[in-house]
Each structure stands twice: as C-alpha cells, then as structure tokens.
TrEMBL record:
Flagellar basal body rod protein N-terminal domain residues: 7-37
Domain Flagellar basal-body/hook protein C-terminal, first and last residues per copy: 423-463
Source organism (scientific name): Cereibacter johrii
Function noted in UniProt: A flexible structure which links the flagellar filament to the drive apparatus in the basal body.
InterPro entries: Falgellar_hook_FlgE_sf, Flag_bb_rod_N, Flagellar_FlgE/F/G, Flg_bb/hook_C_dom, FlgE/F/G-like
Alphabetical list of NCBIfam families matching this protein: FlgEFG_subfam
Cell compartment(s), UniProt: Bacterial flagellum basal body
Entry protein name: Flagellar hook protein FlgE
Keyword Metal-binding: no
Tree of life domain: Bacteria
Entry's family note: Belongs to the flagella basal body rod proteins family.
C-alpha cells in the first residue's frame, strides 16, 4: 500500500536527517580541536522496483552515509613550542599508543595523526598528553640516517630525548692558515724553529693538541739565494707527543703566485729526518703503515692524519693547493696564524630540540654543536578518506585506504613538516550553522509527512459501511 510506504519514507527521512544533525553537532563541537577532520553525511535514495505493467508507486525512502573528510587540510596555527608539529600539505605523522611501548611492532600498531603537541615524559619519550608516542628513524653517531624500509614500521623507534643527554663533536677538519716569514730562509737568518699549536677534540670530547713546528732550510753559502724550503713536523699530544707527520715543503718566489706552495711535488712526506742533531721519526697510532707520513694530495691541498684522540675519525688537515693562498704561505713579514679553523666541539649538554622542514630532529648543545638525532618520516596512503578514524584525531589503515608508504618530508607527494605549529580544525562554523538550518527544516518536513500519513490513516479507520 503506497500510504504505508510514505510513512516508512518519512521515518527514513527522520533517521537520515538525525544522522546529518549528529555530524553537524560533532563538527561544531570540534571547531576548536586541533587536527579535527569534519564529518559529513551524504544522502542516497532507496528505490523500490516497480512492476513492469505500471503498478502503483511505493516510496523507498532515503539513507545517510557518513564520511570523514580526512583529505581536507586545516590551516596551520603558530605556537610557542618547538615540538608542536603540523604538516603543510599531504602526509601524516607516525605514532603509536603509549600502551604499545615495549610490545612487538607491526603494521597493525601504526597510528597516524596530522598534528600533535609533543613533550618528553620522565623517561625522555616524546609523546602527547593523550599518550601518542612519536616515531622516527634514529640517526647514527655522525648524524646520518641509514637506508630504511619504507613499507614497514619495523625500523621506526619511539623518539627518546634524555634531558641530561650529552654529546661530543670530534674534530674532522683543520685548515692550517699560517704565514712563514720568507726572510727566515736567507743565509744570515737565525734558523729559529717556528711553532704553532692547534687544539682538536677527540671522540670522547677530550681536548688534544697538534703541535706543528717549522724548521727553515738555510742556504749553504752566503751568495746563495733564499731556499724557500721548510721542514714541517707534526706531533700529537694524545700519542705522547709522538711525531705523526714529517714533510719538506717548498714555496714559489715567482712574480705570479709568489709565496704559495710551488707545485704538485712541493710537499714531500718523510718517514724520518735529522735536524740540528735531533732525529725525528714518524710513529703512527692508526692504520697507516708504521713510521709513514700520510701523503699530500695536491687536488685537495690536504693530508689525512691519524691521531690517537680520533682513532675512528681521521683529521683532514688542509695545507693549501699549489698556487693558492688560502692556507699556508711564505711571504715577507712576521710568523702569523692567518686563518686556523677547525670543526668539532667539546662535550656539551643538551639545551633544546627542534624539527626542520625535512622532518629531521636536531639537538642543540650548549657548546654550539648541533646534530641530527632522528628523522620523522611522513605516512602517505592512496585514499585518505578511507582511513578509519579513532580517538584523539588519529587514524589507522583500512582496506579502503590502501597500503601506506613512508616518505621523507617534502619528497614525493608529501608536504613539509612545521615546527612551532598545530593544524587547525577543518570545521567552518558558518557553513555548519547553515547546514543546521537546512537539516532542521528537512527534519520538520519529514515529521510533517508522518503527521499527514497518520491523519490519512485515521480518516481511513473512520470510514463506515
């Protein structure tokens, strides 16, 4: 009977609009919730198949399907905390529940969120107040990230930042900018030994010293021109001041390039030398063949020293390229340190952690040293709207979303990571209030249908024979 189908259609309309009202209420309630993705209700008609001979029409009604608009990105909101994290563009942050710590990880444990306000707990674990722990790939001691699996979270670890963390930055490069006085290679020169000390930092943050001494070579006779030749001896305090390098060097006196290293063969490594009655012999502490000075590379202008304080990290000392005045020179004037620079720093205490656009967590120490400690990848799926929504603005994989892939931030389809920011709610209150009015009217109209059908049925029961 078509009048009964009208009643059912009216009831279905009430249910559908009640569902719509629920999504509107949820959206308005979460208009200030960071990372909230608005819900929506789409109506679909239900049609009862009619008979082929044009029988009476029966109303099928309506059905409401709800969907979470996860693919909509909220506007970033600036904050004052370095570990407030948002994403500009596509991608999600990988997190797990705090209760999952210590459990075996698997794809089913992965949760995703668009934003979070992270802080360390007493154990140093970086998490939100709601117990979402940020995941990342740990960096090696030199701050690099090894090659990691991109389709699994097996190699992701909870980000742990110890408040009392200390770190040392071993020295790996020294630029030996020194000027040797050209007058000291004349016949009547004093022949004095010129010495410079260069501090370097070992693997354990210890302060060590390389002592570099320059011995001038004097002409044999008074009428001979200046030799422009020197013997350089390098000693390492971490190796009981043993000699780790001996070199003879010659400087150019040409009109062009005068005072610079003469040519590719001007610096020659020696294993032993006797100067002023004292014999110096190389005693290496590292992997270089015993009693051998490392070779000089004219292409880079450097020698690779193996010092006892940096047994695993060799120090490249730049002497200068032939014809270049960027490091050692020999011109008239005083013996001077024209530009001795180096990297590295002593042991420092952690002062802060920030995240950059690429998702790299960088720790800063009170010595001015910074290094990468983790990389936070971004999770991407083919269909964001197919993700299963959970509490606290988190989502998990579903058959409709497709498999996830871990991207470097800013690479592939993903956007950049933003520190000092949170993602705002995607709710537009003005739009929701408009939808509320429309839904209220639609609900009232469906209620009117039920009232009308009720009156018609009442008329039917009042019929008399």
């Amino acid at each position: 009977m078509t009048i009964s189908s009208s009643l059912n259609a009216g009831v279905a309309g009430l249910n559908a609009n009640a569902t719509k009202l629920a999504t509107i209420a949820d959206n308005i309630a979460n208009s200030g919730t960071y990372g909230y993705k608005r819900a929506d209700a789409d109506f679909e008609s239900m049609v009862i198949t009619q008979s082929a001979n044009g029988g009476s029409y029966a109303a099928g009604g309506v059905r409401a399907n709800t969907i979470r608009r996860v693919e909509e990105w909220g506007a970033p909101v600036s904050t004052s905390s370095a570990m407030d994290i948002a994403i500009s563009g596509r991608g999600m942050l990988p997190v797990i529940r705090e209760t999952s710590l210590g459990a075996s990880s698997g794809n089913e444990a992965l949760l995703m969120t668009r934003t979070g306000s992270f802080a360390t707990d007493p154990s140093g674990v970086l998490k939100t107040d709601t117990g979402l722990v940020l995941l990342g790939w740990p960096a090696t001691a030199d701050g690099t990230i090894p090659t990691m699996a991109r389709d699994s979270i097996a190699q992701l670890e909870p980000v742990v930042i110890a408040a009392n963390q200390t770190a040392a930055d071993p020295t790996t490069r020294i630029n030996l900018g020194v000027n040797l006085p050209a007058e000291e290679t004349k016949y009547d020169a004093s022949g004095r030994v010129l010495t410079v000390s260069v501090e370097y930092f070992g693997n354990l943050g210890t302060s060590e010293t390389l002592t570099v001494s320059y011995h001038p070579t004097l002409p044999a006779a008074s009428g001979d021109p200046p030799t422009n030749n020197w013997t350089m001896i390098i000693q390492d305090s971490a190796n009981a001041d043993k000699v780790i390098g001996i070199y003879t060097m010659q400087f150019s006196d040409a009109r062009s390039g005068g005072g610079t290293i003469l040519d590719d063969t001007a610096i020659t490594p020696l294993n032993t030398v006797t100067l002023d009655g004292t014999t110096y012999t190389v005693e290496n502490a590292g992997s270089t063949p015993p009693d051998s000075s490392p070779a000089y590379d004219p292409l880079t202008g450097g020698i690779v020293l193996e010092v006892a304080g940096n047994a695993d990290n060799k120090i490249t000392m730049t002497l200068g390229k032939p014809g270049s005045a960027n490091a050692m020179t020999q011109v008239s004037g005083d013996f001077a340190q024209t530009g001795i620079t180096k990297d590295g720093s002593p042991v420092g205490n952690l002062t802060g952690v920030e995240i950059d656009d690429g998702g790299f967590l960088r720790a800063t120490y009170d010595t001015g040293f910074t290094r990468v400690i983790y990389q936070v990848p971004l999770v991407d799926v083919p269909n964001y709207n197919g993700l299963t929504a959970l509490n606290n603005q988190t989502f998990t994989i579903s058959p409709d979303s497709g498999n996830f892939y871990l991207w470097d931030a800013g690479d592939g389809p993903t956007g950049d990571v933003l520190g000092y920011a949170r993602e705002g709610s995607t709710t537009d209150v003005a739009t929701e209030l408009t939808n509320l009015i429309q839904t209220q009217r639609a609900y009232s109209s469906n209620a009117k249908i039920i009232q009308t059908v009720d009156e018609m049925l009442q008329e039917t029961t009042n019929l008399k024979r």
